[in-house]
Amino acid sequence: MSYNLLKGKKGIIFGALDENSIAWRTALKCHEEGAQLVLTNAPVALRMGEINKLAEAVKAPVIGADVTNMDDLKKLFEESMKHFGGGIDFILHSIGMSLNMRKGKSYTEIDYEWNKKTLDISAMSLHRVLRTAWDLDALNEGASVVALTYIAAQRVFPDYNEMADAKALLEGVTRSFGYYYGVKKKVRVNTVSQSPTRTTAGSGVKGFDGFISYAEKMSPLGNASADECAGYLATLFSDLTKMVTMQNLFHDGGFSYTGVTEAVINQMEK
User: Fold this and answer.
1) In CATH, what number does 10-269 get?
2) CB of 223 within 8 A of CB of 252?
3) By C-alpha distance, which of 44, 135, 39 is closest to 92?
4) Verdict on whether the full-model pTM lies above 0.90
5) What pLDDT was estimated at residue 194?
6) Cβ(201)–Cβ(157) under 8 Å?
């Protein structure tokens, strides 16, 4: 069902890789709600994914950009504003990559050069995106920026490895840059901490299947799906949430505030 929440709004979606990704589902939802879009991802991800299929569905151009490269981001924003004929109303930052996890390094033995790359891509990329938009005055008054995070930034999930540190840094950038952008142009900057979701990236975490089952038992409402997350993000991009900024917002069926459930206790007592 569409509510025309984003009618007339223009946004950039970072990170759509395939039909399972939250960014992909969000692009579909934003299009359904009336938004015009630009899709972007790293050149290597564009080659690996199926983004042209999404682009056709949402009638959006695809502009490749390496989020660690300021020249690429400048080109992305300039071409997006040219396409839209003006400024940008919302951005989804759905970007994360851990070299140490890919290479099988545990948290206690991480390679620090790889770690720098992880932090740059997964967290400081948000700062680069916001800085580029700031320098070009690309965001409209009252625009909304949302980055996807995870509760491992606050609690220990051993197999989430260095990505927990990256998400903590991402949330720090959200608060700090959110302050400056709020003062400057009433721009909102938030993170959303989603339930474990069967995406290409999420499924790469060690023990993911067991954990997603545990989270389902620990969440009074159950795990939130990618489509449900997309709907929530649409509300954050809309004018209904103009006074929400610098927040980490949990979208996890109640997992984040549940100590234990009967389902978990019953499982443990078997």
Assistant:
1) 3.40.50.720
2) yes
3) 39
4) yes
5) 97
6) no
Q: How far apart are CA 244 and CA 236, in angstroms?
A: 8
Q: Which residues pair with 190 in a beta bridge?
A: 146
Task: Please name the amino acid found at residue 101.
Answer: M
Beta strands in the chain (DSSP E): 10-14, 36-40, 88-93, 139-149, 188-194, 248-251
Strands, sheet with 188-194, edge to edge from the N-terminal-most edge strand: 36-40, 10-14, 88-93, 139-149, 188-194, 248-251
In this prediction, residues 186-199 reach a mean pLDDT of 94
Give the C-alpha separation, 228 to 234, whole Å: 10
Look up residue 199 and give its amino acid: T
Whole-angstrom distance, CA of residue 70 vs CA of residue 159: 32
Instruction: State mean pLDDT over 118-130.
Output: 98
Q: Is the pLDDT of residue 200 over 90?
A: no
